[in-house]
Every structure is written in structure tokens, then in C-alpha cells.
Design brief:
single chain; 165 residues; alpha/beta; globular
Length: 165
């Protein structure tokens, strides 16, 4: 059980003018400010896509300057969710659980949820067209996960990582 440091709450998805078609949640690192700016200003901009919403999921940093920078960034954009676990590769599970918990509380009415990392570019035009096509041909679909499925893929592990852990 972690606590929120930053939580935009219901403000992300509660809109009176339009419904939320896609909630994009982005796993981001505390120091990845430039990546977040690029996402906000390109493929996830509400100017082009008014029916999407965007949130960045971030853990905490031990660096107080980075924490202040995140706080300032959130004052401007109001799109950061941060909990009080240390943001690290080994804590990615915490970040994923944080995101799903937050979405279930604050954005449960969104039609689709898209999870990406902050080093990904999404062609939102193609994605939205594909989802609208699915909506038209398979209406009232629920409890569906859309993803790339690799069959017969071997598990890739770093032997050193197995020894250390």
C-alpha cells in the first residue's frame, strides 16, 4: 500500500464537453521530462485528439531537486500520478498496479485504455480509426485486451541477472 504524492484525481476524465474515448497512461521515469513534453506536444495532444486523456505514472526519486521539478511540471500540466515508492526497474510492478488502481477509481468510464512507455510513439490516427472500426463491427464489446501476441517465443533472460537475484 503506497500513498499518492501527486494525484490529479477525477479532473483527468471528468469532462462535460466530451467523453473519454481513450485514456493513455504512460510509464515514465522521474527524470524523463523531455520525453513527457514530446508526448504532450505530438501524438497525445488534445488539440488533435479531444476525446483522449493522458496521464504519466511515476514513482518517487531520492533526489529532492527532481521531486521539486516533477511537482512544478504537474502544476503546469496536471497529468502526473505519483506514488511514494522508489521509481526503479525492479519496481515496475508497483507502477503497473498503481496505474490500474488509479484508473479503476478515477477513470473507470473510459472506453479504452492504452498503456505505453515514455519512449514510444503512437500513430493515434491509425489507432483511433482501428478502434472505431472495431466498435462499428463488434458493438458492445467488453472485457477485451488488444495486444501483440508472440507465439512460440522463447523467454529471454540475462544469466547474470538470474545469478544476482
Amino acid at each position: 500500500d503506497f500513498s499518492y504524492i501527486i494525484n490529479p484525481g477525477y479532473s483527468v476524465c471528468n469532462t462535460s464537453d466530451t467523453s473519454v474515448y481513450i485514456l493513455v497512461y504512460v510509464h515514465s521515469g522521474p527524470t524523463n521530462y523531455q520525453r513527457r513534453i514530446v508526448i504532450r506536444e505530438t501524438w497525445a495532444t488534445q488539440t488533435l485528439f479531444p476525446d483522449i486523456r493522458l496521464v504519466f505514472m511515476i514513482g518517487k526519486s531520492v533526489d529532492k531537486n527532481i521531486m521539486k521539478a516533477i511537482e512544478y511540471e504537474n502544476e503546469i500540466y496536471q497529468d502526473i500520478v505519483q506514488e511514494d515508492f522508489i521509481d526503479s526497474y525492479k519496481n515496475l510492478t508497483y507502477k503497473g498496479i498503481m496505474a490500474l488502481k488509479w484508473i479503476s477509481i478515477y477513470c473507470s468510464k473510459t472506453k479504452y485504455i492504452l498503456k505505453v512507455d515514455d519512449d514510444i510513439v503512437v500513430n493515434m490516427f491509425t489507432l483511433i480509426n482501428h478502434l472505431k472500426f472495431l466498435d462499428k463491427h463488434v458493438p458492445n464489446r467488453q472485457n477485451t485486451i488488444l495486444c501483440l501476441l508472440w507465439t512460440a517465443m522463447i523467454v529471454m533472460r540475462d544469466r547474470l541477472d538470474l545469478i544476482i537475484n
